[in-house]
Amino acid sequence: MTDLSAQIKKLEGWHTQQPLLSLCIGKDGTEAPSRADLLTQFRSVVHTNLFTPQEKIFREGLEKFEKYLSVSFDPRSIRSVALFTDGKGWWEVVEMEFFVEPFCLVGTKPHLDTIKKELGRHKRYLVLLVDKEKARLFTVNQGLIEEEKQIFDQKTHVSFRPKRELSGRTEKTARHLDWHLKRHLREVVAHTKNFVRDKDISLIIIGGPGEIVPLLKEELSYPLTRLPVGEMVTGLSVEMNEIFLKSKEIAAKVNSA
Q1: Interatomic CA distance for residues 140 and 196, integer angstroms
Q2: Please, which residues bridge with residue 125 across strands?
Q3: Where in the chain is CATH 3.30.960.10?
Q4: What is the pLDDT of residues 162-188, one digit of tens each?
Q5: Rounded to an integer, what distance in angstroms lies between the CA atom of residue 143 and that of residue 78?
Q6: What burial class does residue 181 get, using C-beta atoms within 10 Å of its C-beta: 0-12 exposed, 13-18 middle, 19+ buried?
Q7: Which class would CATH give 4-120?
Q8: Which CATH fold would you assign to the domain 125-256?
């Protein structure tokens, strides 16, 4: 997918004295729209918002866009798609991983305000997942997984001690395990700070087994502590797409708070 910010910058430079159509369709929610969904919505939006003379002006661009939706469009991860056309050969398609309220407007420059507003709510965030022996990090930007890293600590094998008084050898062993866990978490945090260096991160989501998450949160240090923090309870063996979708829900809630 083309970088959305770069596409917006390119479109912002487009001005014309001739009529220009800006059209956006999409589907809200966790499920991606099907080709049939978007084709139906596209035809409805055109019929509802454009007069017959306008449809004739933009016919070439509209026909290309309909063909694109029918043949080329891959709906698996897209929530919204926009068309910009002058009806005279120039047309630009913008695909978005997030939902944008549909619009259909005619002017002398592309209508980008609605897209830019939503883009501002989908800034880059970090997901940090940790268990007793490993960690998984990835950044999400504009609804896409951008970069991923895994950390393995073969020396750490931690079992949580039961909530009862411990004595003698058992207590010594428990302290040893606690020390290894703390060392593991601190190393993960150190790796994470290097991972996000020079990245514009707006949010961090931490996750792992339920007993790990609060311990990990305690070990976070600057500059990670300056960021809003979201949390999820999950195993690291859970399918990546499931974790990704859950992270998007958490990010949306934190950003709208």
Answers
A1: 12
A2: 140
A3: 4-120
A4: 444 444 555 655 565 588 899 999 999
A5: 9
A6: buried
A7: alpha beta
A8: Nucleotidyltransferase; domain 5 (3.30.420)
